[in-house]
TrEMBL record:
Pfam families: Molybdop_Fe4S4 (PF04879), Molybdopterin (PF00384), Molydop_binding (PF01568). InterPro entries: Asp_de-COase-like_dom_sf, MoPterin_dinucl-bd_dom, Mopterin_OxRdtase, Mopterin_OxRdtase_4Fe-4S_dom, Mopterin_OxRdtase_prok_CS, Prok_Mopterin_Oxidored, YoaE_C. SMART domains: Molybdop_Fe4S4. Belongs to the prokaryotic molybdopterin-containing oxidoreductase family. Keywords: Iron, Iron-sulfur, Metal-binding, Molybdenum, Oxidoreductase. Its cofactor is Mo-bis(molybdopterin guanine dinucleotide). This is Molybdopterin oxidoreductase family protein. It comes from the Bacteria. Residues 8-65 form the 4Fe-4S Mo/W bis-MGD-type domain. The keyword Transcription does not apply.
Amino acid sequence: MEMTERPSGVFPAVCPLDCPDTCGLLLHKENGKIVKVTGNPDQPATRGAICNKVRHMADRVHHPERLLYPMRRSGPKGSGQFVRISWDEAVSEIAEKFRGLSAEHGPESILPYSFYGNMGVLNAEGMDRRFFGRLGASKLAYTICNSAGNAGWKYTMGFGGGSSPEDTLNAKLFIVWGGNIVSTSMHQAVLMEQARKNGAKVVVIDVHKNMTGRRADWFIPLHPGTDTALALGVMHVLFDRGLTDEDFLRRNAIGTEELREHVKAYTPERTARITGVPAGDIVRLALMYGETSPSHIHIGNGLQHHDNGGMAVRTVCCLPALTGQWARGGGAFKSNGAYASLNDEALQRPDLRPNPGARTINMNKLADALLTLTPRIRGLFVFGSNPAVVAPEADRVREGLMREDLFTVVHELFLTDTAKYADIVLPATSSFENTDLYTSYWHHYVQLQEPVIGAVGESKSNFETFKLLAEAMGFGEEAFREDEESVIRAALNNPDNPYLNGVTFEKLREERFVPLDMTPKKEYLNRLSTPSGKIELYSERLKSLGLPPLPTYLPLEEGFDGENRGVRNSAYPLMFVSPPNHNFLNSTFANVEKHQSLEKEPLLQIHPQDAEARGIADGERVEAYNDRGVCALKASVTDLMLPGTVVSQGLWWNAPEGREGEREAPAGRGGRRLANALTSSRIADMGGGATFFSTTVEVRPADASSSA
Ligand SMILES: Nc1nc2c(c(=O)[nH]1)N[C@H]1C(S)=C(S)[C@@H](COP(=O)(O)OP(=O)(O)OC[C@H]3O[C@@H](n4cnc5c(=O)[nH]c(N)nc54)[C@H](O)[C@@H]3O)O[C@H]1N2
Ligand SMILES: Nc1nc2c(c(=O)[nH]1)N[C@H]1C(S)=C(S)[C@@H](COP(=O)(O)OP(=O)(O)OC[C@H]3O[C@@H](n4cnc5c(=O)[nH]c(N)nc54)[C@H](O)[C@@H]3O)O[C@H]1N2
Ligand code: SF4
Ligand SMILES: [Mo]
């Protein structure tokens, strides 16, 4: 009997969230409803432990505000007024509109906008890619998360995989660089603690003492966007003191001599001026790194959400090469996604596209795409993402979504801030109602999800929805009639990826989690896919792109370092950093009471010196603002950062959804709590990445705004 047909029991599942850990779950079901979510103790990497967010996932899946049926807008755009319609009506209306737009303006007038609200490959990057490809729609560049850093890693290391989780257990020095793993990758934090029990020192390098920093043996605060300089300063000392592994470098790297010369300019004193890290600490860090083996560097997402983010990751990931860590049981991690890379051609079927040269739109540029791009975007289909909250330049994104001549469809579980702007809203199933395949960008297990509960209301999966739309559009290809099992089989069959050896649908069905075959990793250093086949300390490719071929510190376009402090943006002298919080997953859960009450309200951490200079007291209502917008917050006066940096964690919706007695905050000044009202859509140096944290603001007490 299918799991959906059994009213009660405990069933295996996979966490669908955009989190490296990709936990094995157990869903406890009573009378057809999930009542409890626990960790699956049999999952070898996550071993039964899950985070607080997902322990309350039943509240989200069975939330009273889940969308239950399709709706059509009945009030002004953005008003959130809708009337119920049938799936038949919705699908034929969308198809008719898309056909009309294609005929009149060409299919590139339609833009799909999605991200990994559900990491299942069929629903996140399967049938949708086939559909929009076949339609000939504009392509989306999926750049909002880690693409600058991943590009920086790949220019240096070639292959997009690093240390395995198990390797990190043996580290004697564990560096978390620009990440907050206690909140964002809790199983890696568990391994870090085990390494510490075995004698490791934990060092956290960050712009604020986040939850991970509070557990560090040594927390090193620095100015945002200056990591490249810090890493170069460390290299300076490593070369200077003879702490590099010259034998390893000769065999496995190119550009050592050029780099040795180049880093002479990054003396501890100069590096200290740029980064805000005292020269003595830079020397101490370098000695610690050069003399401790094995060592591990966990490279987070924080340092790469910057104008210079690709270079920052590239530079940090040169460090294990300099000390030969890759041959000593140590190394670094940025993402392990490449070990599990699937057969994308079979999954996404780019061959269905009639116009392979169609334009590509960087998702960080959504505001421009909707407001200034020509030829215009006239149809927008959003799913698995909440761009009104998560995309930069939020005010302009909303202005774009308000366009009367833009036809917007949003496929969602909730009436998010984005869905409120839709012309048609479609209800989406939760991942526990679907069949899907999950890989992890941290551990080495592939997992299968099969439906545990029936679809809530009239909701449909992305997979199913795009099949329906394809049918309505008259796309006759077999690719739109395939079922989930057949697509999973095709995706797993990737002759280019030896790590997938032995991972089959049958095995997944039987065992739920199947390990990758990690034997090829023994050849890691011999299999690097850089042009030279070696670790590229010097990169000809970067040079040909007009970037410095050697790791080089370039100051932020918007921001400051200790050398240039105050030169740029004198009206906005504070750097504003808005990383994830502990209890939301990006903007997911921001509408669920339990998670809201755990996070209470959006805070602005501000240093006592900066608070005093502005007459701001702890607990006071403040506004952070710049030319792009304003964000209302509550001041938390704290010295967790260096002076000059303010931090606000968490991506909050504009206002709590539909809560009794609460109105949506007005779209004008004040009352808004979108961090992204402040952030810029500039593109990072590499990979088309986002630059969320290269943002400057000024802060004032909230009551000052009425006179401003
Ligand atoms: N609880 C929770 N978990 C999550 C998420 C969530 O929203 N909530 N989001 C998920 C997603 S999509 C991702 S991509 C990952 C991200 O998780 P992580 O890789 O941990 O990265 P972030 O949390 O974005 O940022 C980490 C840290 O970078 C710091 N930082 C900012 N600028 C700089 C800088 O210039 N230099 C340095 N050294 N540090 C800097 C921030 O202060 C922050 O503490 O987490 C995933 N897991
Ligand atoms: N200021 C600032 N902005 C940031 C970041 C930051 O640190 N600071 N982090 C950035 C990063 S790293 C990322 S990854 C992005 C994340 O941005 P998003 O990918 O937009 O993440 P979420 O906000 O979680 O929104 C996911 C949405 O997908 C919906 N969803 C879930 N499952 C399904 C499904 O199966 N089908 C459909 N149709 N919908 C589904 C959820 O209900 C949710 O509303 O945000 C970025 N934005
Ligand atoms: S969000 Fe991450 S840590 Fe939490 S259950 Fe999901 S995969 Fe595990
Ligand atoms: Mo992300």
